[in-house]
Design a protein that fits this description.
single chain; 16 helices; 70% helix; globular
Length: 290
């Protein structure tokens, strides 16, 4: 496929092949959709989302045809999250390199911050040591996240990727802002918020931060009931268990049960991940997370 991906033509072909009429796809203004499909006008992102929903078309269907329909950062973030339990995966380096290539001809403060975060992540994965960003870069990330009044996926993604690179005080401030943003936005970016909460809580638990229970438990419990299942539920249960179970023997048994559940589901990378995290909590030595 050529680099100049024709999105209107793709949408028209997708709709026609499935026998979906213009009126069925966009009953409010079928003629507007027709003009868009024939490159005679454009429509807003909200309207495009409505049309795609009616047609059963996912953004993933666009992504497999062209990178231009997903931001470089979102593509990077999604790929790294998928590999978060396996540092040995070659996809981590591939995702970071792909991102760098896609933004090579661009320049901005946000790109500079993201580049610094990725350089640090790459170094930590290579050395297996937690290495925080310098004070100046940490301050820039804190200022960026705390000053934004309406977070988008970039803000949540940046916090998740940089969480372990921040001092505990800054991390708690940024996580508190994320919690407020999620409440304010009525769950508009719930998927990203959930990944931020999971990562930040794991880090704070490893650092033995005493306020993690008060800050996060209600939100973790709600996510476990209303949102997460399967793989993610295992991690959430692990986090909640850290604060709720004081008896060492009982806690060890619970961890063993979670690890067994992961292995039963053939999630061996996750099982190893939980065992390493648990050891880190017991020994007080923070390990690298992705």
């Amino acid at each position: 496929m050529s680099d100049a991906f024709d999105m209107p033509a793709f949408l028209k072909q997708f709709r026609s092949e499935r026998g979906i009429t213009l009126k069925a796809a966009y009953p409010e203004a079928p003629s507007t959709l027709s003009r868009m499909e024939n490159n005679k006008n454009t429509i807003s992102a909200d309207r495009l989302h409505e049309i795609m929903t009616r047609e059963g078309l996912r953004y993933w269907d666009l992504q497999v045809h062209s990178d231009q329909f997903i931001s470089p950062f979102k593509q990077l973030f999604d790929e790294l999250v998928l590999e978060r339990f396996n540092f040995e995966s070659p996809r981590i380096g591939e995702a970071i390199n792909r991102y760098r290539i896609r933004v090579a001809d661009r320049s901005s403060k946000i790109l500079s911050i993201t580049a610094a975060v990725l350089n640090q992540i790459t170094l930590m994965i290579k050395t297996r040591n937690v290495i925080k960003l310098d004070e100046k870069m940490q301050s820039q990330i804190e200022a960026l996240l705390l000053s934004n009044d309406d977070w988008i996926f970039y803000d949540y993604g940046l916090l998740r990727l940089s969480a372990q690179l921040l001092d505990t005080e800054r991390l708690v401030l940024c996580l508190t802002k994320a919690i407020r943003q999620n409440s304010k936005q009525s769950g508009r970016y719930l998927n990203y918020f959930a990944m931020v909460l999971e990562q930040c809580c794991l880090i704070l638990v490893m650092r033995h931060y005493s306020g993690v229970h008060a800050l996060c438990e209600d939100h973790l419990s709600k996510l476990r009931v209303d949102y997460f299942d399967g793989l993610d539920a295992i991690v959430l249960n692990f986090i909640l268990m850290q604060e709720r179970i004081c008896d060492a023997e009982l806690r060890a048994n619970q961890v063993s049960d979670l690890v067994s559940a992961a292995k039963l589901l053939e999630l061996n990378d996750m099982a190893n991940f939980l065992e390493r995290i648990d050891k880190a909590i017991q020994t007080g030595k923070e390990i690298v997370l992705l």
